[in-house]
Amino acid sequence: MSVQHHSARRSSKISTILLASVAALALNACSGMRGNIAVGDAVCTSPVPPRRTPLPLATPAQRDGLLAAGFSADSVHLADVIGAAGSLLASVDTTTGRNGPPVFNAFASNHVSLSVDRATLEVLGTVAALSCQGARIAELDADLNQREALVARRLALAGIAIGAGAGAVSGGLGFLASSTPANIAGIVSGVGESFFGVLQLDVSATGHLRLQSNMLEEFWRGPEVPTLFPQRVWRYLNTRKNAGEETPREAIIASWRRDHLIPDEDYTPEPPAVIMKRDGVGTEDTETLQLLFQPLEDRVGLMARSLGRLVEELLERSEAAMLNRQTTPARRRPAA
Questions:
Q1: What is the reported pLDDT for 152?
Q2: pTM
Q3: Are 133 and 211 contacting, i.e. CB atoms less than 8 angstroms apart?
Q4: Who's near 19: CB < 8 A, 6+ residues apart?
Q5: Which residue would you say has higher pLDDT here, 191 or 66?
Q6: Residue 262 falls within a domain, yes or no?
Q7: What is the span of the domain harbouring residue 134?
Q8: Which residues have C-beta within 8 Å of that of residue 10, sequence separation ≥ 6?
């Protein structure tokens, strides 16, 4: 009885040591998950001062006049968006007479050029702000992935260590003909390896996203007077090119639903949870947020290309007007 009792005590002691080792390794591996990862955007955005006067809207007559003058529908639409449709039409004055050439209006053209320059600066600033917030989210995503990889590596090493240790104990006890402790060591080894294998399947770090100015939230809410988007860019995102079409903002939100980035449900003033989430942000959240930013940043960037086309058409017409003035013979004065 004393030999069996001694063997049982030794088996219990070995089991306790192995189980304690498993717990210690698990705690050490998971300790990396408790670190506080926080990312902010203090340098990304600042409130945009509102315009003192609203941007003028093009009248149907002005639109028809620009189309008749040879401007494309895209350029007419963009000129209306930036509030320069009237000046663009005035840049080509056809009131010089039925047979007279068009006269290039330099003052009106300068106003169009200034409007385009201001719109271009607003586009560049908006793209930079969106890119900055997207970069902060990508930074948090990288930190979370790095933390998860570290914990997974620790768990893998812990599983290897407990398996090797238990195997060594089991082999030594088997050599000493201590079958019961050896069997216990083998069982603990298998349990320990399985335990760490299961833990590796559920490694998910979380962090804190500190967005002082959430551009996605304002984009979703769609206020009449924005604070984070410049007026011309905001008008571009919320203006229909043709009656019955979606605005760029509506098209982007529809693409989010189509790509299953947000729930496919009716629009509500309150943004989806992923846009408002700030604490307990995981890698799935950061990946979704990056995918939400991408089409918005791309669409704003397309506005710059449209502005370039508008300038090109304006230059073509101004050059044509100047050539006509140079080639048209001067009128002879009537004889005295």
A1: 65
A2: 0.72
A3: yes
A4: 188
A5: 66
A6: yes
A7: 17-326
A8: 178, 181
